Every structure is written in structure tokens, then in C-alpha cells.
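Q: C-alpha cells for this one, please.
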Amino acid sequence: MPYSSFDIATACLQAGELPDALAALDTHLAQHPADDAARRMRIGILRHLGDAQQVQAALDDVQHLTDPQPADRIQQSLLLEQAGRIDEARHCLADAHMRWPQDERLTERYLNLLLAHDLAADALVMIRQQPQTWRWLQWEGDALVRLGDDLMATARYGLALAQLDAQITSDNALYFGPIQARLLLARAAAYQRLDMLDQADPLYAAAEALIPNDPTIPFNRGLLAWRRDEQAEALRLCRAALAASNESLRTRLLADLAADSRFEPLLLALTMKE
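A: Here is the predicted structure, written as C-alpha cells:
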């Protein structure tokens, strides 16, 4: 029995031969335009190939799906975002969220789009319609940070951490550990911006215990030490952090330091021998 065009497309896709897979799907869909599975496959390939014409072709394909699902609206929003059509992506997700309000992946995608494009106030409204679980509490903290409310953000991160602590066991610690570390760092950074140094430092220390190879943590602890007039400790921590950083991260850390006049003497001391 000869292989069908869809079989050929599947084989080409598995082999990484995307142009050949696309050609086979074109043939198949010309004969079977209602085959949503094939159309979704073509949408995925076009999005991966990703030039403007292919992205538009993928968007056209989305409109021809006979039974669109939440995942299709997520894909459509990603394509619109890829094309720089942010308002359309937002409206696409807003409409889909109204239709499928219980779909968590769709809701998270909508939230991520809002936060990525400085729409934190809209994100906060949506977040506060969700259950107060650690997942939504962490994003509420993120939205509050974007809106400049660091104090309320520390409270939300704290609630999220408390819920995580109650759920972590030896069986799931590897999964939850990085999430816990991110929340600790986010809360510490918010306290740092609030000049609440004594609250920030133990959070950085707890995060460092979870991810000991992240140089940004001792660097930030060094900044806290500098602000407490513990200059020797600050220099020790910052030098160790810079020594452990790759060139890109090292450049970024020094640039962040240069942007804050409070640390001008520290920057001078760290770069004096270079």
C-alpha cells in the first residue's frame, strides 16, 4: 500500500525535514481540508520556520480549523505575538479565556502575555479571580512588583512560600526546589528595594542553599553587606560572585552596579585591579 501524503509528512517531520513535511501537508490538506490534525501540524511547522509570510500562513490556517480548542488559541496568540501584533494576541486570549475560563494553560498563557507586555494591572485583575494557590500567589507578587507595590508583593510571595513549604516532600523536592528558590529571590529583591535589608539577607541565604551555583545571589548579599557598612564582607562576596560568573553575567552585574550611585566606591574597589 502506498504511503499517504500525511504519512510522508509525519515521517519527514520526525526526520527533521521540515520543508518536505510542509510540501506533503500542502498536498494532503488540498485533498482533505477538514483534517484538523494535519492543519495543526502545518501550523506548528510554519510557526517554527517563522518568517513573516509563513507566520501569516499559519494564522490563516488557524482560521480554517473546524473545531478550534484552547491549545489552538494559545498557538494563535503565539503567532500574533511573533508577528508583533500584541493587541490582537491579547484580544484572542481574552476571548478564549471567556469561552474556556477553567483551562489553566490558556489562563497562564494569557497572564504571561499581559506581564510580558507591561499590562500588569490587567494581569492583576485576572489573577485575583483565580484560587489563592501558590501558583497564582507568585504571579500576583510578580504583577505587584511590576506595579511598584513591593511591600504587598513580599506578602504574596510569603504566602506562596508557606503553601510550598507545606507541600514539599523528599519525593517532590527536586521539582519544587527551583520554584521555591525563585520565590525566595523575588521576595528578597522586593525587600532589598524597600531598604529592608535584615529581611532580605536570610531569604538570599535560603535561596543560595537551594541553588548554590548562582553567582547573582552572593553578589546581592554583597550589596546588602555594603549597605550595612560591612565593607570587607561586601568585597569578599562580590569578588567571589564575579569570579564565578561568565563574561556576559559579569558585565551585567557590573553594569547594574554602575547604575546605582550608592555603590560607586564598591564598583571602584572591584574594578581597580583590572
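A few notes: The mean pLDDT is 94. The radius of gyration is 24 Å.
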